[in-house]
């Protein structure tokens, strides 16, 4: 794993694909070896970043993703697969954790192969979204077509009513594997653990308020979702998302649950732009005129912004959370028990904490200073959240275009 104390020479030689990241951040060298000669063999990553005043967490995030996407020579974890073949594991976690998780899965698979003499079929999704062919195939009522273990996140199709009726409600999955594990009190208080033990939550992305004091001016920080909809915050909000597909469903679902479609319309009035979390971190506190006073963004990306005049606030009514969870086939639990144990175990929970992503495991030092809001399992099971999210987006875009004529929503 790349850390601040890793020599730049080692990074560039072991992971040559990272040179483009250095180039795009102002390290203007013709090639990697020239860069190594000029900065020195032993120079640490944290040293060159400090000299150039580059945010270290955000830079390592870019490095890790460059490495993850470029890796093509894994021996145990599949680089590609046929979705019509049975998979033992299919995973898609958040970007800051993918590199850590894939490394750990490699070790688990080597140990499994050496201990049993059999190789499992495991695939870690490199992109943000899952394979469309898999989505279509795994929605099929035949449970044998579904992976033994699916690692997923956000309010996606696997939490939708169609999938629940076809698969989850049939009793195919189990989350009865925590044993005597201490659960994070924040999770218990919010009701994040599935009472029906079908979905195994292992962590959440928690949305915070990244506030640019200069751009917000004398207006007070909106500490509740109701205040976010107040007219005084007109054009003061940036949402997470690069396009309609990636625009976060979570914000719309939480607002709709409390305030209905009128709340979605009021939100549209107050949103200036939508952008990826890394863009928000670069905008907040900068002189860029496209910025705004408030970014609704995950705690991880908020922490990567360290400019003066920028503050992180935790909403008084709880941070909106996006679930990170596993679906484990009841008939295949023992075959993937080691992977499940790692996902809910102390080591991965500690990685979540370091990525400013609250884990369900309560044994680690969870330093989350706020409270968590949760959409609610009863609500998810009694409402078609996928359809609601799309309806909310329709209303949002219509109202945003009406009130921002000629404007550009996505940066």
From TrEMBL:
Superkingdom as given in the UniProt entry: Bacteria
InterPro entries: ScdA-like_N_sf (IPR038062)
Keyword vocabulary terms for this entry: Signal
Coiled-coil stretches noted in the UniProt entry, renumbered to this chain: none
Designated name of the protein: ABC transporter substrate-binding protein
Protein's organism: Hungatella hathewayi
């Amino acid at each position: 794993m790349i850390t601040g104390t890793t020599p730049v020479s080692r990074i560039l030689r072991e992971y040559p694909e990272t040179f483009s990241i250095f180039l795009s951040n102002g390290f203007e060298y013709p090639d990697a070896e020239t860069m190594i000669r000029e900065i020195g063999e032993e120079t640490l990553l944290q040293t060159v970043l400090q000299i150039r005043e580059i945010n270290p967490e955000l830079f390592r995030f870019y490095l890790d993703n460059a490495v993850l996407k470029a890796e093509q020579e894994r021996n145990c974890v599949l680089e590609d697969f046929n979705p019509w073949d049975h998979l033992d594991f299919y995973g898609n976690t958040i970007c800051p954790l993918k590199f850590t998780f894939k490394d750990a899965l490699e070790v688990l698979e080597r140990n499994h192969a050496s201990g049993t003499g059999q190789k499992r079929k495991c695939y870690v999704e490199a992109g943000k979204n899952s394979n469309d062919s898999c989505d279509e195939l795994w929605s099929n009522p035949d449970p044998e077509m579904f992976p033994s273990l699916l690692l997923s996140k956000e309010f996606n199709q696997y939490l939708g009513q169609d999938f629940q009726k076809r698969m989850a409600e049939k009793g195919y999955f189990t989350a009865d594997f925590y044993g005597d594990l201490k659960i994070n009190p924040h999770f218990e208080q919010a009701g994040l653990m599935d009472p029906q033990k079908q979905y195994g939550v292992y962590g959440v992305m928690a949305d915070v308020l990244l506030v640019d004091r200069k751009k917000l001016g004398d207006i007070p920080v909106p500490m509740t979702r109701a205040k976010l909809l107040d007219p005084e915050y007109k054009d003061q909000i940036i949402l997470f998302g690069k396009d309609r597909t990636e625009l976060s469903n979570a914000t719309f679902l939480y607002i709709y649950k409390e305030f209905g479609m009128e709340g979605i319309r009021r939100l549209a009035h107050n949103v200036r732009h939508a952008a990826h979390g890394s863009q928000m971190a670069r905008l907040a506190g900068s002189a860029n005129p496209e910025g705004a006073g408030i970014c609704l963004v995950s705690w991880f990306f908020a922490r990567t912004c360290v400019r003066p005049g920028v503050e992180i606030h935790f909403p008084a009514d709880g941070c909106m959370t996006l679930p990170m969870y596993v679906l484990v086939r009841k008939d295949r639990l023992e075959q993937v028990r080691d992977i499940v144990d790692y996902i809910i175990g102390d080591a991965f929970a500690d990685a979540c904490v370091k990525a400013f992503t609250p884990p369900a495991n309560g044994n680690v030092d969870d330093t989350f200073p706020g409270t968590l809001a949760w959409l609610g399992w009863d609500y998810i099971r009694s409402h078609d959240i996928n359809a609601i999210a799309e309806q909310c987006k329709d209303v949002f875009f219509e109202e945003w275009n009406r009130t921002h004529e000629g404007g550009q929503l996505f940066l």
